[in-house]
Amino acid sequence: MVTMTLLFSSLLFSCFLHYHNLLHHKVGFGGVGVDFLAAVPSFPKPDAKIRTTEFKIQGGGNTGNAMTCAARLGLKPRVISKVSNDAPGRALLEELQAEGVDTSFFVVSQEGTSPFSYIIIDSQTKTRTCIFTAGYPPMVPDDLPLANLLSALDGARVVYFDARMPDSALVIAQEAFRQNISILIDAERPREGLNDLLNLADYVVCSEKFPQAWTEASSISRALVSIILRLPRLKFVIATLGKDGCIMLEKCVDDEGSNLEEMDVESCLISLKGKIDDSTAMPTCLVSSITKFRGEGMGSVCGRLYFGTSEKIPPSELVDTTGAGDAFVGALLYAICANLSPEKMLPFASYVAAAKCRALGARSGLPYRTNPLLSRALNWSSKSSA
């Protein structure tokens, strides 16, 4: 009976995804590359010689990984990027095509080199060190004629940017903005041209260190309030915290007018964290009521605060965190296209990211839409706090 139930749930989930497959395209612009992944017993000391315990070559790059995740979840992503007509570049395109990613809008240079990274995975500390080499020649706006750009954006629901190649990214984002296509920015760290992209964004997902680095706020949660106030187009901003989960601030309409009492967002976050059930291994989501959160010298914003926990992965199952953030973003993009509520979106994205961490490399562990556990992930309940 349990097997039949899981099979039926899987079939329903696949049909649900197929329906959205017909309606929504997603476009990603940014980095792709080849990852040379070496797992070692511990990170090498200077001038040392060590042996790998596992080695793998596979596609990487923030955009390549996020779009692969989205394709496995059932969306029809397109990627705009640039590689060279060398062996790594051809392998990158073949790998993405095999995953169902549309690569017809790639720019392929007949000379130069494709991007690549050396990644060392420390099996003892479960950390990874990345050494990136950019491709050459870099992509410039003239590489993408307007007719090609319009074709790439045709039918798109969301356009994703990892904030690389800023000049070309801005041209694409401005056209998406003109067409009223939603824009999601992955803000890993402050980069050249990032502010121009953020001004056009509907959604921002950022690393743990970015919010305070960009706003100089006294805490991550207060920085999220500042980000919403500085970028009035934003519908939500999320800060990912790795194994510690994520924080999301969603902007809301103040239905109660000025009667809402202002509250310090950090106090609200502490209250939400106090309701965490430590006995639950799977991701959960805790939600505040609609509240007017004070900014640090910038006014206030009406919104809802969410704290999403991450899956507690047993140490014996944790292999590699490379690309976990990209998996999280890929799942978020699916959730946006599927109109999932934040209460479902955050645990679902955390589950997908955790699944990735159980295999070496950014793509090996990404779950497919046929995985019956994905339907279960969408049904996890959330807790709310007044």
Can you give a write-up of this model?
The protein is an alpha/beta fold and 386 residues long. Helix content is 34%, strand content 24%. The protein has 12 helices and 18 strands. The strands form 3 sheets. Strands 1, 4, 9, 10, 11, 12, 13, 14, 15, 16, 17 and 18 form a 12-stranded mixed sheet that branches. Strands 3-2-7-8 form a 4-stranded mixed sheet. A two-stranded parallel ribbon has the order 5-6. A hairpin with a 5-residue loop joins strand 16 and strand 17. Helix 2 packs across helix 10 and helix 10 runs antiparallel to helix 11.
Q: Which tags fit this structure?
A:
386 residues; alpha/beta; 12-stranded mixed sheet; 4-stranded mixed sheet; 12 helices; 18 strands; globular; disordered N terminus
Q: Which structural class do the helices and strands define?
A: alpha/beta
Strand content: 15-25%
How do the SSEs run, as a string of H and E? HEEEHEEHEEEHEHEHEHHEEEHEEEHHHE
Can you give the helix content as a percent range?
25-40%
Rg result? 21 Å
* Biggest pleated-sheet summary: 12 strands, mixed
Count of separate DSSP helical elements: 12
Please outline what is shown here.
The chain has 386 residues and is an alpha/beta fold. Helices cover 34% and strands 24% of the residues. Strands 1, 4, 9, 10, 11, 12, 13, 14, 15, 16, 17 and 18 form a 12-stranded mixed β-sheet that branches.
SSE layout:
Elements: H1 2-23, E1 25-29, E2 33-40, E3 54-60, H2 62-72, E4 76-80, E5 82-84, H3 87-98, E6 107-109, E7 116-122, E8 127-133, H4 146-153, E9 156-161, H5 166-178, E10 182-187, H6 194-198, E11 203-206, H7 210-215, H8 220-230, E12 236-240, E13 246-251, E14 262-263, H9 265-273, E15 285-288, E16 291-294, E17 300-308, H10 324-337, H11 342-356, H12 372-377, E18 383-385
Parallel strand pairs: 1-4, 1-9, 2-7, 5-6, 9-10, 10-11, 11-12, 14-16, 15-18
Antiparallel strand pairs: 2-3, 7-8, 12-13, 13-17, 15-17, 16-17
